[in-house]
Amino acid sequence: MKRSHAASLLLCCAWAAAAASAEPLIPPRLAPLLDAAHDRIVQRSFVPSEEQKVGELRIVRRGAAEVVQTLLYTKVLSRVVGEIRKKELANWPADQPGHADAIRYVETIAAVQKQIWDRMPRTESARDRRQKMFIEFVLTGSSALIAVGSFEMDEAEGAVRVLRRELLVVLEPSRHYAERNMRLIVADSFHAGEAELGPLLEAMPLLRAGNAR
Amino acid sequence: MKSLLTRGRIPFLVLLLAATAWLGLHAARVGVETNNESLNTSEPGQTESYDRFKATFGSDEDLLLAVVHPKLLEAEGLGFLAQLTDRIAPLEGVRHVFSLANAQQIVTGEGGAEMAPVAAPPFDAPGFAQRVRAALDRNPDFTGLFVAADRHSAGILIEIEDRPGDTQYRSALIDSLRQMMAETGGGPGVELHLTGIAVQKHDVSELIERDRNLLMPIAVVVLGLVLASFFRSLLGVALPLAVTGITVAWTLGCYQLAGLEVNAITALLPPILMVLSLGVSIHLIQGWLDASDAAVDRTTRIRGVVRRLVFPCSFCTLTTAIGFGSLITSDMPAVQQFGIFAALGVVVAFAIGMTLVPVGLSFFEPPSAPLRTSQHRLIRTALDWAARISVDHPWRVLAIFSGITAVSLAGLPLLRNNTDLVRFLKSDAPLHRDTMFIDSHLSGASTLEFVVSRRDAAPLASQDAVQRMAAFEQAVLTHPEVTGVSDILAVLRQLQRGESGGEELVLPPDERATAYAFDLLEAAPEQGLIRKLVAPDFTAARFSVRVHAVGTSVAARLADSILEEGRRALGDAYRLDATGAFYRVAGDSNRLVDSQVKSFASAVVLVFIAIGVLLRSARLTVISFVPNVMPIVWTGGMMGWFGIDLSTGTAMIASSVIGLVVDDTIHYLDHYRHEYRGDARAAIEKTTAEVGAPLLINNLVLVLGFWVGSFGSFKPTIYFSLLSGVTMITALVCDLFVTPASLVLLDRPRRSTA
Question: ipTM of the assembly?
């Protein structure tokens, strides 16, 4: 009985240590797709609006990869995640392909949100209390993935600069889900219809082609 | 004077007519103040604090429309409420409308606390009424404000815009609402009641207009009748009324040229000016009628009368002007304006009276013998009796009058400084009725505003701040006059319940939950209600304390008590300030009475200095003091014994009346001085016989003229009018009894020496 307790305790500590420090294991073939060092921002828009922003959406070129990057920096991240969940479930109903990917995605971002929340100091109320989470949908000719993590930033004249990123989860959803969801997210953030995305996605041939398919 | 009465007569009349026409044109253009701004004092600290409050939280002049409906919480009642809410929302000047029909409650949703309607349509869905009742039970903060405890009356809270430069939009909005109320009807058992500070301002403006149109004609009729009955000639009526008309036209013309509008206090100016402007005319005409030198030509006769009266009349004008002019020390612009223009009117009346009356009389043949009617004989008999009693029993007279003064002095401590804007109006006035209904069925009709902030200007989004504010809220709620408090804590409690998924309304339990609750407030998509309760940066929180319809006496005490308890609960690191329209009225009322006491004191000193200069006798100046201060003490005591409050109107009585009542004494003592030949008794009997009649008629005119104000719409102005009249009657009685009695008593040592 005692041994069983000790084993459980050991397991919990190991899990906690892993959760606290280690980044997810990334297959080597995907690693370059997650390296943001040489990102070229093609378009950007505040979410949900410049007046009441909780973050921003960027359309990014990362080498050959096309990235739809969401940077969320808000004190009420759980609410934003709740809103994302509502939209995902509306866009991917249970009887449609991609529903399982959507569920996995919303559960992942909810877990990351909780992780970020738990890391927040419990007593300091005066410092920057915004919780920062990035979500990236990455698309190449051969792969599609979702990367979720936290980041640190600074702001100058309203522009956000990412100083450090910490990748926490990587998902590999179906290409159909990733491609269409990227288009839906861009359309929603830029307040445009899905059919009107042409000019926004001019530098993103894969995403543009997705519409043709 | 001689040339004025001969070749200068026509040019003078032409000039006078031209000036009167020009100023009369301006007088006709005097507008009515619609925002009651002049009834607020110019105390800079309070004004600044109130401006800051409005800049942070918006206007506190919300309107409350109470709706009584027999099926209030069913589809029919809530449908009616929704219909009213939808009709009010687009009206000009309305910022937001809150009612049960659109009220939101905080519930537990998928992602934590979220907003949900209290009465979610469709209203005819099964179980709708039960759901609404359950929502109201879950949210006790709605009871009192949006729904009565008995669930038969609902409140629609109408937040109006604050447009500092626009004086008309409030009135237009009230008119639209009243029209809507009349059109809506609603069927049997349905009632609508509207109240709020904006309604008070609107109704006060309308009543001022009504009083202005009513009081002037009544004053003309009353004064005309009194003059006709006394002088029994067209001349005796026309000349004084002409002086009066010109005085009113000139003074109100100047008032308009000064850029002022009529307010609840200055609405009294026209009838009072009419009354004040008659004195000189009456004395001159009476002197002209009584003049015994029938042999001289008419110009000489008039000049003789003018020469005899110019000195006492000018001093009477001076003392009356000093009395009214002393009101300039008041903090309240309306009272200052009243004092300045009443004083100006008195001076104008003197100038016009001393010129127009002689010029007017110069056109007529003087009577060959003094007017003697049965009425005059009665007056003379009464005056003879008064003179006899005073000289025969001076000690008894003084003892009786001193006894009355002692009783009055005992009543003075009972005087209560209290201004009640709603009870200013008669009980059948719509605002009075509606406010009392709302006060007894829904929330309190008045609101005291308090603002909590930290001394270091840090946000209040900490658990310490929230706990301290909760302690303050508890302290406020212990007062029986308080019916409820609207503050951000109620929202925080609902948020915490929504976040935790529990049922209990409690505040966030720890630092983190508190900070997160404020984060949620910051991110809430609908900021309208939140901005009314807390500053955008959370550095200031508003506590809107709803109280029963009480006067400023109770409100000022309550506010002081809340401030004291609040500062104790909040601690030294926090600031607590009281403000708001109602708090200002309470503070203004107290300051007004303080300033009136100062004003009265300065008036008394100045008036008696003037009398001293006129009479050049310390003994006579001392004698003149007693019969003039005595009636004011009597009036004060009577107010105390009869429970008449010191308010905006009644606090002006002493300062206004002191300048008037001394006129009788001045005329009496001036005449006495001329008649005195070493025998006080003989001089008194002659003085009372000769001066008594014009004093009596002058006082009768003054009293009846003041009493015209009792047809007004505001109780303070009604009391002002009635009590000023009563004071003048008692002052005349004192002058006819106490003054001669004092003269006899103070004359005795000299007589015995002689």
Answer: 0.71
